[in-house]
Specification:
This protein has 7 helices and no strands. The protein has one domain. The protein is mostly helical and 132 residues long. The chain is globular, with a radius of gyration of 15 Å.
Length: 132
């Protein structure tokens, strides 16, 4: 999967939207998740068995697992513990959507991309490391 693929951002957005009880189970939610899982299946990053093994997981857990898969393929970056710690302490204070917005802003305005890196790569990795 190309690292600048919009499905990565869509997956992060879907996780944030799932924080709203009004969103879960809507047609838009179902359509978005079908698109996400279909893309990951088509790219060969997951299998139907992978999905079947996670039937008892929440939607959010399955989507976060997809982000972890992408992050592992992209490589893991080294973030300062002070930076990660600041965001970790904010976890109980804000929604994931607000957190994701702040992380996107941080990556776009404070990170220098190396050859072949994209903002999506850094964003995905930072989220994975903050929520682990």
């Amino acid at each position: 999967m190309k690292t600048n693929n919009p499905i990565i951002k869509t997956t992060h957005e879907e996780i944030a939207k799932l924080q709203s009880n009004e969103y879960w189970g809507t047609q838009k939610n179902i359509d978005n998740q079908n698109l996400i899982y279909g893309t990951f299946l088509a790219e060969g990053l997951i299998s139907q068995d992978w999905l079947d093994d996670r039937l008892k997981h929440t939607d959010e857990e399955r989507l976060q697992d997809l982000i972890t898969i992408v992050s592992k393929l992209q490589g893991v970056y080294t973030w300062g513990e002070e930076t990660l710690g600041e965001y970790r302490k904010d976890i109980p204070l804000m929604s994931k959507g607000k957190m994701f917005s702040q992380l996107e802003y941080f990556v776009e305005n404070n990170c220098h991309l190396e050859d072949g890196e994209t903002s999506d790569m850094l964003f995905s990795d930072m989220i994975t490391q903050i929520y682990k």
